[in-house]
Design a protein that fits this description.
Helices cover 41% and strands 16% of the residues. By secondary structure, it is an alpha/beta fold.
Length: 291
C-alpha cells in the first residue's frame, strides 16, 4: 500500500498539472496521495475532478493539503504540511494569500542581487516559467536561469545560486510555525512538519524547537525524506516515538523539476490511519476523494 503525503503540481512550483499528477499516481499504483502545493489550495478542484472522472478503476484516495511556508525566531525557513483543513477557513486562507503576495517582492529582491552580480535575469523571465497564478517560488527562478543559459538544470541553479546559504537568498514574510499549526488545527486539520532536519537545504531548526511545536499541537514529523541523512532520520524517528507523534514518509514530488520520484518514500498504513484519526471526523470524508 503506497501512501505519498507530500507532492506538488503547477499550482505552485511543480511541473505537472493536478490532473497529470493524478494520472501518474494511478499509474504508479498509489493508494493515497496528498496534494500539498506551497501556500495555496488552487490545485484541489482540478485534482478532485480528474480523480472522480478517471477512466480507470483506481481506488486512489486524494488528500487535500498545503505546504505552508513558516519562519522561526532564528529566521530559519520551516515548512508545515496541513491536511484535511477547511478550505473556507478565512484566517488560514488570509495567511496563505499574504505569504503568496510577499513571495513577489522577495523574488524581485533576489533578482536585484543576481543582477548586481552580473547575472542577467528579469522578473518577466521568472513569470514566464510559471502557470497562470501559481505560487511563485525559487524553482521558477531556477527554470528562468536555465532558459537564459546561466545554468543547465534546476539542481545546478540551487546548488550554485539559490540555496539557503547563498548570498542571493532572501527570506519572505511567513507565519511562525506555531501560528501555522494553530491555524491548521482551528480549521479542523492535521499538522505535520516537513523535512525538519534537511541539512542539504541549508540552516536547519534546533531540535529543541520541536518541543515548542509539539506544545502548539504538532501531530507528526516527516521523517522519511530524501533530504534527510540516515542519522537525521534516526534522530527524528526516536523523537517521534518518544513524543508519540505520527511518522510520515513522502516524495516531495515536483515533476520534472527535481529528481524526487513519486512514492520514493512512503508512509506506513498504520501511521496513515493515525493521521486520519486526528482530523475532525466531519472533515475527513469531505477532504478525502474516493473513487
Amino acid at each position: 500500500m503506497l501512501i505519498d503525503l507530500h507532492t506538488h503540481s503547477n499550482a505552485s512550483d511543480g511541473t505537472d498539472t493536478p490532473s497529470q499528477l493524478i494520472d501518474k499516481a494511478i499509474n504508479r499504483g498509489l493508494a493515497v496521495i496528498a496534494l500539498t502545493d506551497h501556500d495555496t489550495t488552487r490545485g484541489w478542484d482540478e485534482a478532485s475532478t480528474r480523480l472522480l472522472n478517471h477512466p480507470s478503476q483506481s481506488t486512489l484516495q486524494l488528500v487535500h493539503g498545503a505546504e505552508i511556508s513558516c519562519q522561526d525566531s532564528d529566521g530559519i525557513s520551516i515548512h508545515m504540511l496541513g491536511f484535511f483543513f477547511d478550505p473556507q477557513h478565512k484566517p488560514l486562507l488570509d495567511v496563505l494569500e499574504q505569504t503568496r503576495e510577499n513571495r513577489l517582492s522577495r523574488m524581485e529582491r533576489i533578482i536585484a542581487r543576481l543582477n548586481e552580480a552580473g547575472i542577467e535575469i528579469t522578473i518577466e523571465d521568472v513569470h514566464a516559467q510559471r502557470s497562470s497564478d501559481a505560487t511563485l517560488g525559487r524553482p521558477h527562478l531556477a527554470d528562468a536561469l536555465v532558459a537564459r543559459g546561466h545554468v543547465s538544470s534546476r539542481d545546478e541553479a540551487f546548488a550554485a545560486l539559490l540555496h539557503n546559504k547563498s548570498k542571493f537568498y532572501i527570506n519572505h514574510y511567513s507565519p511562525s510555525p506555531t501560528s501555522a499549526i494553530q491555524l491548521i488545527k482551528e480549521a479542523g486539520g492535521v499538522a505535520v512538519i516537513a523535512h525538519p532536519l534537511a541539512s542539504q537545504r541549508g540552516r536547519t531548526i534546533r531540535i529543541e524547537v520541536l518541543d515548542d511545536l509539539i506544545a502548539a499541537g504538532l501531530d507528526g514529523i516527516e521523517v522519511h525524506h530524501r533530504d534527510h541523512s540516515e542519522d537525521e532520520r534516526a534522530q527524528l524517528l526516536g523523537l517521534a516515538l518518544e513524543k508519540e507523534l505520527i511518522v510520515t514518509g513522502s516524495s516531495d514530488y515536483h515533476g520534472t523539476g527535481k529528481q524526487n520520484q513519486l512514492a520514493e518514500f512512503t508512509t506506513h498504513p498504520q501511521q496513515w490511519e493515525a493521521l486520519v484519526s486526528r482530523a475532525r471526523i466531519k472533515n475527513v470524508e469531505e477532504r478525502l476523494i474516493r473513487r
